[in-house]
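Write out the 3D structure for:
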Amino acid sequence: MKKGNPIALLPIGVFLVIYLGLGLLFEYGMQIPMGFYNIPIVIAFLMAILVACLQNRELSFDEKLTVMGQGVGDKNIITMLLIFLVAGAFVGVVGRSSAQSVAYFMLDLIPPRFAVAVLFVVACFVSTAMGTSVGTITLIAPIAVEVAQASQYSVALCVGTVVGGAMFGDNLSFISDTTIAACNGQGCDMRDKFKGNFSIALPAALATLALILLLTLGKETTPVTQSYNLIQVIPYVLVLAGGIAGINVFVVLLVGIVSGAAIMLLTGQTAATELLASMGTGAAGMFETSMVAILVAAMCALIRVYGGFDALLNAIQTCFWGSKGGQLGMGLLVGAMDIATANNTVAIVMANPIAKEMSKDYGISPQRTACLLDTFSCIFQGIIPYGAQMLVAISATAEMGYTLSAFDIMGYLFYPYLLLVSSLVAIFLGKRT
């Protein structure tokens, strides 16, 4: 076991103090709406890197730049950045109306008494196809309020159901930031990660669906009707099917972009110039996430050279023993990062290099490691009251004339709670992978 240097972890502490401290001050001290997300995360990481550069006088500044360059130039980091940008372009091409078409089509197809269960299934499908839980909640939460208005179900139940379904796809989607970050950070194939992840997520989803049906059956409801264009669903289906089939992610996304562009142009929904602008906007929406990945890679490269990761691994190994203990340690590590940053993608990017070392020490496969990082980050992100998902759900509900608090919704977040149970069962009772 290598001797570590705990002081080398100081940059991570500096980042957490700046980001978490100012976020709590803005959100709860100054009562600024969504104050947690007014903190420039890039600036917080830059300050952390500055602290890292001031440490370890044995290395010159030029040598430290070389170390950071090697960290950023890692193949997995470059691949991650490219996938982020292409996935953003895909979302820009297909637009949000396509996802709404999926929602209204399924609500029109299924009997009204199953409306809340349908909301969950719709949120699961849309988030898996779009790769974003926040985008899914933005689109489906207003529909959830409509369902609540047309039935005797509470708004909190309907909105909480949508939040839970949104986290299902955030965890599993091939174009989700979290999946891209976890798989490329651990150097594993997305299809392999999906197989292991699906075996954990599916039982939780089925149990959630059964619980929703148990709570809602027997209620009289009014159909929720709205126009939709079914042809817009095709790009999502192609991307989903291609990802499951194991086709290269770049090829899958290219097929989605081409099919989406053809449909948008042939149906006259957009002009060529507007389509190109939408692609650019979608890719630009990934810039901050990409920049965070670059800064974290640079910071972690310095921390690793200084001996910080060795110190952290030594501490973890004194608390968690064996493969099962190592898997639980990984889950709690990324969960703690998510609680601190309120961003599951950033949490995974920060935990990736540490988890990679843990996977070697504990004999855990890369795909299992990626699965655990993605799953536990989504569990915590779906529950914390100051996460973007919860704040967007509250905001969307308020725009429809209803006032809910995060704690009103938290009582109905069945899927994240059951996903935690399913994850623990998989760790302690499942097969070693």
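Residues 190-216 form the longest helix (27 residues).
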